[in-house]
Design brief:
- By secondary structure, the protein is an all-alpha fold.
- Helix content is 67%, strand content 0%.
- It contains 9 helices and no strands.
- The protein has helices at residues 16-24, 38-54, 59-65, 70-79, 81-85, 88-97, 103-116, 123-130, 133-159.
- Helix 1 (16-24) packs antiparallel against helix 2, helix 3 crosses helix 4 (70-79) and helix 6 crosses helix 7.
- It is elongated and about 65 Å long.
- The relative contact order is 0.12.
Length: 160
């Protein structure tokens, strides 16, 4: 089992944005969204965990940074930190955050991370998700026309 290093052993002070960016680089959503599924909650807990242990910000400031109340941070700290510390994937990410590599971490990364972490969205996918319903309908129509034209062109070239 991967060893979780005591955060006191590593005396790096990190910025909240750096922590948020690190976590969001491993998921396809922003951690300050309203999602409440298990993965989102666990990654948000990871944010609170790293923020509390590596910054001098208050619980109120940490919560506010991702649009949460300080009581949410307290709840995560009291109820979910132990769960986080026993989760292999989260241990890997914590160690990765501190740029700690061990032989076990490398093995476990290949086993767990590929199934647990969703690939990042491209900029085009992010922009598409921000469109309203009417804009998406219009975008889809234009994309269909382009795809049909491309198919026709490829079919025409194959005939020649």
């Amino acid at each position: 089992m991967e060893k979780l290093l005591k955060l006191k052993e590593i005396n790096n002070k990190k910025d909240l944005k750096e922590i948020k960016d690190f976590i969001e680089s491993h998921v396809d959503w922003e951690i300050d969204c309203k999602r409440r599924n298990a993965k989102s909650v666990m990654f948000r807990t990871l944010f609170f965990y790293l923020s509390i242990n590596t910054t001098n910000f208050t619980l109120k400031e940490i919560g506010k940074f991702i649009k949460r109340d300080h009581s949410t941070v307290v709840h995560h700290k009291d109820n979910l930190f132990k769960k986080l510390e026993s989760n292999e994937v989260m241990i890997i990410l914590i160690n990765k955050f501190y740029k700690i590599k061990s032989k076990e971490t490398k093995k476990l990364e290949t086993l767990f991370l590929k199934d647990f972490i969703v690939p990042r969205l491209t900029n085009i996918e992010k922009q598409y998700r921000k469109l309203n319903t009417n804009q998406k309908i219009e975008y889809n129509k234009k994309a269909s026309i382009l795809i049909d034209n491309l198919r026709n062109k490829l079919n025409y070239e194959n005939i020649l």
